[in-house]
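queue> pop job 88
queue> type: inverse folding (structure -> sequence)
queue> payload:
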């Protein structure tokens, strides 16, 4: 480290290697690496990993950096609280931290110990949506997070945002991905009505076809609608989910 203090790759690798054993130094090295190489996508991910490990109380790893120990007391440590605060200052880091915590809840190590971090994961994901508002977040991490909750047997974390209904023509004016609705002329097309819910991050949380002309056409239309994004909506200064219906054109592959 002393020989290459301005080498972002060295700083980043050192930060990753010591993200649990020496969090304070690892954090500083990763921050320095990000300053030196702001376009390197691996550095924000490693920062988010460090924050997620601190927030969740991860306290030890094996020789392959596999997590092998958790200390719940660490969750309330000054560094863990710092990690949570700093993770929410940047929308990209907040998104990556929330995604990491959510994925950790599904790892066998944590599941075998009945450790579920989804409630912790929701907070930075919501913060990322707030930081990006009035635009949708760059990826649908929050919408995917809520969609995953339906598959859980227990410990579900549903969205607490109220849902308001809006007509499709109004939501079309808020659409930020109009190209997705385009359909080629090579095949005949089907017109399918789709009922969907747009989350507070502007991405579609759920979509289902309403009386589709064919089963396959309905599945294709719902899948297509899931990739749409919109300008998020607020009412009385608070983010809301939006229920709406849109017509989606898909190729008729019969």
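queue> result:
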């Amino acid at each position: 480290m002393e020989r290459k203090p301005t080498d972002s790759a060295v700083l980043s690798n050192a930060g990753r290697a010591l993200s649990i054993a020496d969090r304070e130094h690892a954090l500083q090295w990763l921050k320095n690496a990000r300053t030196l190489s702001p376009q390197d996508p691996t550095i924000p991910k490693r920062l988010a990993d460090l924050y997620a490990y601190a927030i969740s109380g991860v306290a030890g790893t094996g020789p392959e950096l596999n997590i092998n120990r958790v200390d719940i007391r660490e969750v309330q440590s000054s560094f863990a609280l710092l990690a949570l605060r700093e993770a929410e200052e940047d929308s990209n880091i907040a998104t990556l931290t929330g995604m990491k915590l959510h994925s950790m809840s599904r790892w066998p190590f944590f599941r075998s110990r009945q450790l579920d971090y989804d409630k912790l994961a929701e907070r930075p994901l919501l913060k990322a949506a707030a930081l990006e508002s009035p635009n949708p977040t760059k990826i649908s991490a929050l919408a995917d997070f809520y969609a995953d909750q339906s598959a859980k047997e227990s410990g579900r974390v549903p969205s607490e945002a109220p849902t308001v209904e809006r007509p499709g023509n109004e939501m079309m004016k808020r659409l930020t991905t109009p190209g997705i609705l385009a359909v080629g002329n090579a095949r005949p097309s089907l017109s399918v009505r789709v009922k969907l819910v747009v989350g507070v991050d502007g991405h579609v949380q759920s979509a289902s076809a309403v009386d589709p002309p064919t089963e396959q056409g309905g599945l294709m239309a719902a899948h297509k609608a899931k990739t749409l994004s919109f300008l998020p909506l607020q009412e009385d200064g608070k983010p809301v989910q939006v229920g709406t219906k849109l017509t989606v054109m898909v190729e008729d592959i019969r």
